[in-house]
Design a protein that fits this description.
twelve-stranded mixed β-sheet; eleven-stranded mixed β-sheet; 7 helices; 25 strands; binds 2-acetamido-2-deoxy-beta-D-glucopyranose
Length: 434
């Protein structure tokens, strides 16, 4: 992990404050750790807390300990940057806002969208043994509406730590040598026209924390390594990815994983139920996932948002959902789930929204009735619940999908097991009581 000089941290804070809120619904903010400790890597904080977007930009004030430097000739790093940025400029064919008209001359630090940092207070790490050097540390061309491609020369920007290109018209693939970006912590290529299979160079960027490639045309399977990598946030939603989800999905150290609006098929990986997961928000919305919700899902997790909606999941809900103590949004709508919606789920104390519409549920228990009164989003329409309005026409409820098979194995017990006893059972602490 590289450390950041204070100047850079403040710059990042400013950049991020202009577009920090990338989450929907729960005040998800993205921030870079404060500058004073120097250990700041990228971080995604979910669900409240201090959101950098609410604090005023702090870049006006010069950091107290930095001395005014006399103007110095461009460092070797900057002349390489010139080569890189000019090569890229000539691969950009449309620039309707005239952003690149500022990209002339050797002083790349004055180019619009290009941000430099002065490396002279490189946090005491003199293993660099470097003289005063200035280098391009960030590129932020969000919403520039540029059309073009990425070029391999960009890796001449060896100190780059942020590349934000969201909402442009870049196409083609990610150059293979992008793996050489040793200090890139944030890559945002969202809302472009990139295509090809999963951009593997991202897996080799040793400092990457935030990967956002949503709203592009990437296709094919996603690699297992995506979920072993030390990422904080994985946004790959709204692409054409397909195939089965890697079995190690639940092992990911990321706090947010958005897989929505792709074409993934097969089941939800069982790992989501077995490991002590770091995942806080995980969205599978609108894929082609089938099978059962994995037994044990929720057991060891701090998930706050779980969106399984618009898939083809079947069977009864696992009792382990009762362990989702922090869950706020549980979206199960538009699947083929059945059985009774248990107390265990309805009494989850942090629930803000429980969507079960468009399934085959045959009823809900007493505690669920309270949800109507707690003004919690609780939509039960288009199920098979007798005596309730807005249900499926009865013939649809005769052949409930998945009930003739034993594919959704459940721990046998007379009544649902609350979270604690389920844990004991699984950890072998006590025998199953009758
Ligand atoms: C995930 O992607 C879906 C589909 O674009 C979007 O509706 C949802 O808000 C996203 N959630 C997060 C946390 O990114
Ligand atoms: C609950 O979630 C559903 C589906 O995401 C949404 O349509 C609805 O507006 C939400 N309701 C509340 C009260 O938040």
């Amino acid at each position: 992990m590289p450390t950041f000089p204070l100047m850079l941290s403040l710059l990042l804070l400013f950049l991020l404050s202009t577009e920090a809120a990338f989450g929907v619904g729960l005040g998800l903010g993205l921030g870079i750790g404060g500058g004073t400790t120097g250990g700041g890597g990228g971080g995604v904080w979910v669900g409240g807390g201090v959101n950098p977007s609410n604090s005023p930009p702090q870049q006006q004030e010069a950091p107290p300990q930095s001395q005014q430097q006399p103007p110095s000739p461009p460092s070797p790093s900057l002349s390489k940057s010139y080569t890189a940025l000019q090569a890229w400029k000539s691969a950009i064919t449309e620039d309707p806002n005239g952003v690149l008209t500022t990209w002339v001359g050797p002083n790349v630090c004055n180019y619009k969208g290009v941000f430099c940092s002065n490396g002279d207070n490189y946090n005491g790490d003199y293993s660099y043994n470097s003289p005063v050097f200035s280098s391009v540390s960030a590129i932020d061309l969000n919403h520039a509406n540029l059309k073009g491609i990425l070029v391999k020369e960009l890796t001449l920007l060896t100190e780059l730590s942020l590349l934000h290109l969201n909402s442009n018209r870049f196409s083609g693939t990610i150059p293979q040598n992008f793996k050489d970006f040793l200090y890139l912590t944030e890559l945002d290529l969202s809302n472009n026209q990139f295509s090809g299979t999963f951009p593997n160079p991202t897996l080799y960027m040793p400092s990457l924390m935030y990967l956002d490639i949503r709203f592009n045309n990437f296709y094919g399977a996603i690699p297992d390594d995506l979920f072993t990598k030390q990422l904080d946030a994985i946004f790959i939603n709204n692409n054409q990815f397909d195939g089965q989800l890697p079995q190690n999905l639940g092992n990911s150290p990321a706090s947010v994983i958005n897989l929505s609006n792709n074409k993934f098929s097969g089941g939800i990986p069982a790992s989501l139920g077995f490991v002590n997961s770091a995942i806080k928000e995980i969205l599978f919305l609108n894929n082609q996932l089938s099978g059962c919700i994995p037994e044990n899902l929720g057991l060891f997790s701090d998930i706050t948002v779980l969106d399984l909606s618009f898939n083809s999941l079947m069977g009864h809900l696992p009792d382990s959902l009762s362990c989702l103590e922090d869950i706020q949004v549980l979206n199960l709508a538009h699947n083929k789930l059945s059985g009774e919606l248990p107390d265990l789920v309805c009494s989850l104390k942090n629930l803000l929204n429980l969507s079960i519409e468009y399934n085959f549920f045959s009823g809900y228990s007493q505690k669920c009735t309270n949800l109507f009164m707690r003004s919690i989003g609780f939509d039960i329409s288009l199920n098979c619940i007798p005596g309730k309005g807005m249900q499926r026409p009865p013939p649809e409820c005769y052949g409930i999908p998945g009930t003739d098979s034993d594919s959704c194995f459940r721990i046998p017990s007379g009544k649902p097991l609350v979270c604690g006893s389920l844990l004991d059972l699984i950890l072998g602490n006590i025998p199953l009581s009758p």
